[in-house]
Prior knowledge:
Strand content: 15-25%
Number of strands: 9
Bound molecules: iron/sulfur cluster
Largest sheet: 7 strands, parallel
CATH topology: TIM Barrel
Order of helices and strands: HEHEHEHEHHEHHEEHHEEH
Structural class: alpha/beta
Strand order of the largest sheet: 1-2-3-4-5-6-8
Number of helices: 11
Amino acid sequence: MFRINSFGRWLRQKFGSPVFKISIDGGFTCPNRDGTVAWGGCTYCNNDSFRPESAGHVETIEVQIAAGIAYLSERFRAERFLVYWQSFTNTYAPVDELQKLYLQALDADPRIVGMTVGTRPDCVEEEKLEMLEDLARDHYVCMEYGLESIFDDTLSKVNRGHDSACYRDAVSRTRRRGLDICSHVILGLPGETREQLMAYAPVLNGLGVQFVKLHHLHLVKSSRMAKEFEAHPFPLFEFEDWVTFICSFLEHLDPAIVVQRLFGWTPEEHLVGPHWRKNKPEIYRAILHELERRDSWQGKAFGCPPPGF
Length: 309
Ligand code: SF4
């Protein structure tokens, strides 16, 4: 029985074999830190880790992809790959530059089946979506938009630089282009109650997105939020608490939505908290065990049968 509509299974069904993501850095920055949208970035973002534009050295796209393929092939015998534009805001450049960069990546190796573009909802103008729609005729393309919170007062407090209406607009314009969408949320931002966190599920269900990434809030060193936490601590999800919460959340999540992530992840050396001291498989197994213990699954609250996917 499948209890979660998982991304790994979706990839195998879509592409006929396992597909591995290669994270690459396109040398982008972020409009939420350079004053275009706001200064200083989101308060949970580690601003010290930003690459200084003048000093940063980013390997060419081809070199990054070759290194990613070599590593994943050796470690997992991977044969097919998705390029993942992960760092910063990956649509923050003129459209012709973006197109050139994306094509460079998509054409770098015949084993690449497509790409996921991580970006902000306020950085996807129509001309960029039109270009991406064109690329999607020959390659798989998914847009990954950070929603982070469904509440405008939280978005404002964390200096996100956009509101939920902006998010809905980006999602609806992207859907009209036929592109897949992944919504990224952070559950546990300061001031949001458990009741409010459960309200994310119906909002995500109503967006019409194909994928979600569900992160618990983790505080990273040198972020503004970590400093706020040191001055005025607020509750963070402890491990058992998250397992219980996320299982209840999954029960209320539309089973048609594919779950790409069930928790956040920061290497211990960058982490202020919470310290779970578990590796990723341990966390994943604990969530599955809790679903088994409850005899539950994604979407059970709607009376849906266990997912067949
Ligand atoms: S979290 Fe993303 S949008 Fe916010 S400042 Fe960092 S890179 Fe920019």
